[in-house]
Design a protein that fits this description.
Length: about 150
């Protein structure tokens, strides 16, 4: 583990300037996301109502009730995300409170999604701008096309 910084340094040195710029932007985005998440999500004593439904199903699954909304209840599919419910149940079975596991997984999955979104957006923007060429208004319109509310 003590060689990780050394290996990261060698990897960084092999990158060209543009790759380093993209890496720095992505690292900054991840850091900003984590700061935002820590300030506005972790410290707030609330969760979205739908998460509470998954918490109840996960708790009941771990307690042997199956995927039921309440102990002794009928087994119905009232949760909205099966995988999320199973992940919360897994950590609850290990003794991690549902609230904590959901907050930690939210941060981890959010950070993991950022590089994917960054790369997809960069590729889509490059394709849009290649189609437009040097037409400045066309470049601006193409950029706005990537913003979902304005598309």
């Amino acid at each position: 583990m003590d060689r990780v910084p050394e290996r990261l340094g060698r990897w960084w040195e092999r990158l060209d300037d543009q790759q380093r710029r993209h890496g720095a932007v992505l690292a900054a985005l991840c850091a900003l996301y984590l700061v935002h998440y820590l300030v506005f999500c972790v410290g707030q004593p609330f969760f979205i109502e739908d998460a509470g439904i998954s918490f109840a199903y996960a708790r009941n699954l771990v307690h042997g009730e199956g995927l039921a909304p309440f102990p002794g209840g009928e087994r119905v599919e009232g949760y909205s995300n099966f995988t999320w419910t199973l992940l919360v149940a897994f950590f609850y079975a290990l003794g991690v409170p549902t609230w904590v596991s959901a907050k930690v997984m939210g941060a981890v999955f959010g950070v993991l999604a950022l590089p994917v979104v960054y790369l997809v957006t960069r590729r889509a923007l490059a394709e849009l701008l290649a189609d437009v060429g040097d037409d400045e208004p066309g470049r601006i319109r193409s950029g706005f096309a990537l913003l979902a509310p304005l598309a």
